[in-house]
Amino acid sequence: MRILTVTLLSAGFLFGAVDINTANAQELATLKDIGDKKAAKIIKYRETKCFGSVDELTKVDGIKTKVIEKNKGNITASKCKTK
């Protein structure tokens, strides 16, 4: 089932990038080198902060610049909404 979900979500790359400010865990996990654990860390980070840019992903524990480089063109950070 997970393989089917990942395959379907990966097809989303054809239509648009994954928004790190709004994507759910399954969408985030489709990115290269972002599995379930890192996706959960991204969502936890988002609970108190907003990503002003894709490069701010490195503020999440375990995510390095190389992860961003591998996903260039597949990720975006929408404008932060005030709470």
Explained architecture:
The chain is mainly α and 83 residues long. The protein has a single domain, classed as DNA polymerase, domain 1, CATH 1.10.150.320. The chain has four helices and two strands, in the order H-E-H-H-H-E. The protein has a two-stranded parallel ribbon. The mean pLDDT is 87.
Record the SSE blueprint.
Layout: H1 2-10, E1 18-19, H2 25-29, H3 36-46, H4 65-70, E2 75-76
Parallel strand pairs: 1-2
Short description:
The chain is mainly α.
Task: Please name the defining characteristics of this protein.
mainly alpha; 2 strands; 37% helix
Return the string of H and E elements. Answer: HEHHHE
User: Approximately what portion of the residues adopt beta-strand conformation?
Assistant: under 5%
Low-confidence spans: none
How many domains make up the 3D coordinates?
A: 1
The counted number of beta strands is 2
CATH class: Mainly Alpha
CATH architecture: Orthogonal Bundle
- In CATH terms, what is the fold-level topology? DNA polymerase, domain 1
What's the average pLDDT? 87
Sheet with most strands: 2 strands, parallel
**Which sequence of strands runs across the widest sheet?**
1-2
Helix content: 25-40%
Judging from the principal axes of the Cα atoms, what is the shape? Answer: globular
Q: What distance lies between the first and last C-alpha atoms, to the nearest angstrom? A: 36 Å
- The secondary structure category is mainly alpha
Computed CA radius of gyration, to the nearest angstrom = 12 Å
Tell me the name of the CATH homologous superfamily. Answer: Photosystem II 12 kDa extrinsic protein
Number of helices: 4
